[in-house]
Amino acid sequence: MEALLTPLVFEHALRIHVKAEFSSNSEKGKQSSNLIGRINNFVTTDLAVINDARNCIALISEIPFLLVFYAVFLYTILGWRYVATCSSSIADRVQLTAVVYVVHSAFVGIGITIIMAPIPIYISGIVRKYHAERMKKTDASVHILTDVVNIVRMIKIFGWEKRMLGKVSEARDDELRVLKKRQYMSMFGWAVNYGWDLCDITLAMKQALTASTVFSSLVVFENLQRFIKAIFMYWTRALAAKVSFDRITDFLNNTELLDIYDAPSSTDALSIRDRAQPPPNEIGFQHASFSWSGENGSDGAATPSGRRFTLRVEDKLSFERGCLNLVTGPTGSGKASLLLALLGEMHFIPLGPSSYFLLPREEGVVYAAQESWVQNETIKNNILFASEYDEARYKEVLHVCGLERNLELFEAGDETEVGEKGLTLSGGQKARVTLARAIYSSADIILLDNMLAALDVHTSKWIVEKCFAGDLVKDRTVILVSHNVKLVEPIASSVTLPEVLSDDTDEGNEDGGERVKSESKPDGKLVVAEEIQEGRISGRAVKLYTSAVGGNHAVFFFSTFLAMTVLTHFMGVIQTWFLGYWVAQYELPGKVPIVFYLTIYMAILVVVIASNTGTDLLFISGTIRGFRRIHEQLAEVILGTTLRWLDKTPTSRILTRFTQDIGSIDTIIPEWAKYAVDQTMKLTFKLTAIVILTPLFLIPGVAALAAGYTCAQIYLKSQMSVKREMSVAKSPVLGHFGATVAGLASIRAYGAQEMVTEELRRIDKYSQSSRIFYNLQRWMAIRMHVISALFIGSLTWYLVYVKKDTASNTGFSINMAVTFTGAIFGWIININMLEGQSVSLERIYAYVQIEQEAKPTEQGKPPAYWPASGELRVENLSAMYSPDGPEVLHQLSFHIKSGEQIGVVGRTGSGKLSGAFVAPVYLYYRRGHIQWHSYLFDELRHFMVQYYNYPPSGMFILSTMQNLDPFGEVDDLMLNDSLRAAGLTALRDHFTEDEDKITLDTTISGGGSNLSVGQRQIIALARALVRRSKLLILDEATSAIDTIIQASLRHELTGATVITIAHRLQTIMDSDRIASLVLDAGNIVEFGVPADLLKKKGGKLRALVEESNENSTLFNLAGTVH
Hints:
GO terms for molecular function: ABC-type transporter activity; ATP binding; ATP hydrolysis activity. Residues 283-528, 872-1106 form the ABC transporter domain. Residues 1-193, 562-836 form the ABC transmembrane type-1 domain. The structure is a single chain. By secondary structure, this protein is α/β, with parallel strands linked by helices. The protein contains 38 helices and 22 strands. It has a 6-stranded mixed beta sheet. A hairpin with a 2-residue loop joins strand 21 (1074-1080) and strand 22. About 11% of the residues have low confidence.
């Protein structure tokens, strides 16, 4: 089932809009604002629920045959003079009590059952409603967790771990609150249905009973009990599966597709039919309009915040074939959307009969997005992508894209894994890898979205001269979006200024962290393979669960739970024995007082109901407590782990723990744990009852247990290994989903849908393991049925032909034997399922033990007024990314005064980010120290991040207000001031419609995908301003922001120590208070005022400036003459 539905969901995801998570319906938008989170939930939780209900199909075919068989059998024994009072509960724990007694017609009991049937049906409806509500809460919880895991680095840098843990716990509590209601309703259903027996017996128990009718029919009824129990158990699972099917169906039917996959409306069909044919081989638009959704026509697509995205080309806009076309324009003019519209990623709305847009694909199209998309593969495989390997062409591509020197920095060269989202590469390196992928392909049309913004001046010049003007691009059509007009204009055949466009997208890229030297081993592997445990579940993993469930008084909790369970099963045996004792009274002379025996029997039932209900209440309270605590522990260790561990662990693995494994702990493990305890008690009391009446059968009973145990050992050892393989095989599937959704536009542009779909065949490994898992169960079932038949047959022969005991004792013993052997198989299956599902517990326990950052201490806590200044002093600092890794910073020493603005420049791979003092959270010191306002960084390793600021592009799925101030600590006036200071006011001037503008109420999608890079940078900078930090580190935070906005920003940061990492030299050259720190391979080669450094002939900063196309402007900004 999973092997069928997983590719279905995946293939559908390949056809949806890049920004399909937005809807004009706000409620729907909230539910689907994180596409990756929704899909993860589909392929873990929902598919697991559907898979659990797969046996319903076989059960449906068995129901009529078994019901007829049981009816005929009972009629043969009892004729028309019996009634069976059968009560069945719904949901998770189902019990059926069968009491056989003689009355006028067999149809009395059937009539009672029909009359009472609406009650369990009604309760089933309530349970289904709670399940559907719980799945919505689970979606919300997974969305928050996906956000937190994706931006966990930002959370750690800002020191938000504890408060984010509170938000995660709040969402988890909402989910558990609904789960608790569902469990209580299931328990209530059981109590109500079991209580029916009291009413039925009181009304119908009026005549004599015989041992032959009681115990013969009782055995049949107990088999019928298990059958009906299975029916109701799978009915509950079927209801849950229906909810999951509905969720997946809604995703498949209501997620907006690209125009080429979606059936056009009647008006669109007319427009397309009547439209004039465009010239052959033309690339461009005419009288065209585009939106991110087709729901709102030409008005554009409204997001939950009310903003609309519309791109309009009023006249004709075309690109020349066989040359480089440069697309430039101001922020918000629609440059990025122009490329996506060409690719068909936006909804096309014709403005007239002559409307068209055209991008010929016969000779191939490739696309490099503004946010570089790379797979979790080697550098070489990322460049080759779907192309065949040609060594000469490959080496030439590496040369013209400036990657040769970078590959020398990696011990494994181009076999180095780039990690999830390219975490081993800097922003510039990722941009060049995606460029190399485009250039290496044989496609005739290349679309590049501002990839030069992530490169330093020297590298940009190299790319333009060697790549764009080289033989590999000759006669190919290149459409390049860029602000760097002076550098590209000399080789561009046409320059397009799309003033006719109206959109709020922008371009640019952030250099997400430079790495001087990879820490990869020579094989290039960064991501550590997931370890597969062997053998049985460890006691420590079991202790994690029991201590969480038991709470602070675990001994008292489990003692009480076991005592109540013992009482329930003891009274269950007494209930059956009392029937035999009652029957025996009819063989004695004298009248049997029916009311007396009926009262005792009803009292026994009341005790069973009360003890079982009390056990359930206790179990539900304990498991809910355990669910909450284990989830909290897992979230706590993920937020508290080291960044190095996060670098080595794919996000998909972490999310698998929070979805698939937590899902098992929430529902499957407690269910099987309860059943295992019940079956253990049942075995104990059934065997004890047999031995008391027939001591000789202690030996066969123990032998049956031993045989079952031996089979179970063989079975469990194989089954546990298979279950672990299943769990490990699921993570790569989730990782593939996430990576594919993140790069949809690039994948579709390359036409690589078939290739990535083929990669999904990883699910086959999971499916194979799953099939072996269930085949092992069949193997075990056959052997247990043989053991059961031998034991029951030998006991029956002995009682009838050898011992010749009374009818009541013989019937009681056989009844106990039948349920005993059935309990052996049930016990083994329960233990097996419990241990198999406990692999999830083991996997979570392994994560609870991962390495953690040092916890803050009171000694490292500065006074309340700290920091009063941003003074920094670095002395002889050498550092590395991991304790056993190579040095990335070498003996740095310098002093920065409070309020100074420091520029950090250097070529890609020079160690700019490392040198920008992210040491407290990113690096390990080998020697030396950093002192901030009289406190050493290593003393403030955790507390200092409350003041230390590095604004990345991480975004929550929240409003702009909540992204700026997630915890509601700042008033709206200050938030608006921060947005204004960060440049939002200047950006708004490009929009003529109010709905296009970003406000505090604007909803931001997962990762900020509904915003341009420039808008994300503005919000990140505004978030930094809200924090009012004395020390602010900006890593290419202004790469997509105009000069006017940068000037506004510098004014607002007066008084703070600002360290700016930049490729754009204008960012750090226009103030005489800015010092320039030049890094090369982790060493400081120059440090001083820009004007002084530019006067040094042969200096590094001067060389960078002279290589640029803006050297005169840069010299003027620095206050010196060229």
